[in-house]
Write a structure and sequence with these properties.
358 residues; alpha+beta; Serine Threonine Protein Phosphatase 5, Tetratricopeptide repeat; 2 domains; four-stranded antiparallel beta sheet; 13 strands; 30% helix; globular
C-alpha cells in the first residue's frame, strides 16, 4: 500500500470517527474557530451522529461566534441588520439542516427566534408541517440522518449502512422507522441472469422495489426506488388494488397503487459513489414539471428504467447499451455532466422493501 493510499485510508477513518462521535468537535473549546468548509462538510453528512436540534443549536452558536458587531446577546433585541449579518455568515449552512426532523416544541423554542434567517418558502413549509395535522415534509426535503444505523441487506453491491440510508429515503415518503425495514433480494444478475425477460418474470409484478447497479470499470454504484409496478399490463392475482393512494403501505403483500402518476412522485434515483463511504452519496428526485405522465410502460421488452433518465439494456453485462442522463430527475448524478452516459453493468440487484413483522 502506497503512502498516499495509507493517508487516504487514515483520513477516511478519522472523518468517519468524527461523524460517529461529533461531540469531539462540536463540544470542543475550539469549535467556534472551525473553518466554514469543515462545518459545511459535517452538516452535509447523512451519518452525523447527533439529534437535529443539536445540529441547529451548534450551527447557530458557530454563526453568532463568527458574526461581528451583533447588537445584543439577546436575540429578541436584535435589529434587522443583525439577522442579515447572521444569515450571511450561515448562508452555506442553512440549507443543510434537516428542519423537518426537529420536534415542534424544539422548533418553537429554538428555531423560531431565528426565523428571519430562513428562506420564505422554507418558513411556509415548516408552518404548514407543524400546524396542519397529517402534513408530510416536502418531497425535496433532506432525508433524516441515519445516525450510524444499519439495515440488513443480502447484497454483493452495497452494505448495511447504505441500506439504512436508502431505507431513510423511503421512510421520508412512506413512513415507518428505518429499523422496521427489510430488503428482500428478488434478483441478482450474476445469479439469475441479466436478460430483461428474467427481470420481467421476477420483478414486474412487484411494488416498492429498489434497483442497485454496479457499473463495470468505474465501480460506481447507482440505482433507484420504484414505488409502483414497472409495467401497465402486468397481472398478478396476489396484488391488491387500493381505491385510494393513501392506503398504500409497505407490507409482506405490497399493495398496488391505483394512481401511477402519484406512485412516480415517490420514486427517486441515487448514486452511492464507489460504495466506500457516505461522503459521495447523491439523491435525485423527479421534477414534476418535467414528468411526462406515468413512469410505467406498456413495453413488455423493457428492463429496469426510470423515465428517460436511467435505462438498463437487455444482457446489460455484455454490452454498453445501458445509459443514464439527467432529464426528469434532478440533480445530476454524474457530477453535472451533460448528455447520455452509456455503460456496461458489472452486477445488478433488485430488492423489495418491506416492513418486517418481528
Amino acid at each position: 500500500m502506497s503512502g498516499h493510499e495509507t493517508f487516504e485510508k487514515l483520513n477516511t477513518h478519522c472523518l468517519e470517527t468524527i461523524c460517529e462521535e461529533p461531540h469531539l468537535i462540536f463540544k470542543s473549546d475550539d469549535f467556534l474557530a472551525l473553518d466554514e468548509p469543515m462545518l459545511v462538510w459535517l452538516l452535509k453528512r447523512d451519518d452525523l451522529g447527533m439529534d437535529e436540534i443539536e445540529v441547529w443549536d451548534y450551527t447557530v452558536q458557530w454563526g453568532i461566534g463568527n458574526t461581528e458587531n451583533l447588537s445584543s446577546h439577546d436575540v429578541s433585541m436584535w435589529t434587522v441588520d443583525d439577522f442579515i449579518a447572521l444569515e450571511k455568515t450561515l448562508h452555506q449552512c442553512i440549507p443543510l439542516i434537516r428542519y423537518f426532523e426537529i420536534a415542534a416544541d424544539d422548533y418553537a423554542e429554538k428555531v423560531l427566534p431565528y426565523k428571519k434567517i430562513l428562506p420564505k418558502t422554507l418558513k411556509k413549509q415548516l408552518l404548514t408541517f407543524h400546524l396542519k395535522a397529517g402534513s408530510e415534509p416536502p418531497l425535496n426535503a433532506l432525508p433524516p440522518r441515519v445516525l450510524c444505523a444499519t439495515v440488513a441487506i443480502d447484497s454483493v453491491i452495497t452494505n448495511p449502512r447504505h441500506a439504512a440510508l436508502i431505507a431513510s429515503w423511503i421512510k421520508r415518503r412512506l413512513g415507518s422507522d428505518i429499523s422496521e425495514y427489510k430488503f428482500n433480494l428478488i434478483l441478482r444478475g450474476s445469479r439469475d441472469g441479466f436478460s430483461n425477460s428474467i427481470f420481467r418474470q421476477m420483478c414486474a409484478h412487484l411494488t416498492s422495489t429498489v434497483v442497485l447497479i454496479k457499473i463495470c470499470g468505474s465501480g460506481k454504484i447507482i440505482g433507484g426506488y420504484q414505488a409502483g409496478k414497472w409495467f401497465n399490463n402486468t397481472k398478478r392475482s396476489d396484488i391488491l388494488l387500493d381505491e385510494e393512494f393513501s392506503n398504500f403501505t409497505l407490507s409482506r403483500r405490497p399493495r398496488q397503487l391505483s394512481n401511477p402518476e402519484k406512485a412516480s412522485n415517490l420514486n427517486f434515483l441515487f448514486s452511492l459513489g464507489t460504495g466506500k463511504n457516505l461522503k459521495s452519496v447523491q439523491l435525485s428526485f423527479a421534477e414534476q414539471r418535467l414528468c411526462n405522465g406515468s413512469q410505467r410502460s406498456n413495453n413488455t421488452h423493457s428492463g429496469p428504467f426510470f423515465y428517460n433518465d436511467l435505462f438498463i439494456s437487455d444482457q446489460s453485462n455484455s454490452n454498453r447499451l445501458s445509459w443514464y442522463q439527467c432529464q426528469t430527475y434532478q440533480p445530476n448524478l454524474f457530477n453535472g455532466q451533460i448528455g447520455q452516459h452509456f455503460f456496461q453493468v458489472e452486477e445488478y440487484e433488485v430488492f423489495q422493501a418491506v416492513v418486517h413483522d418481528d
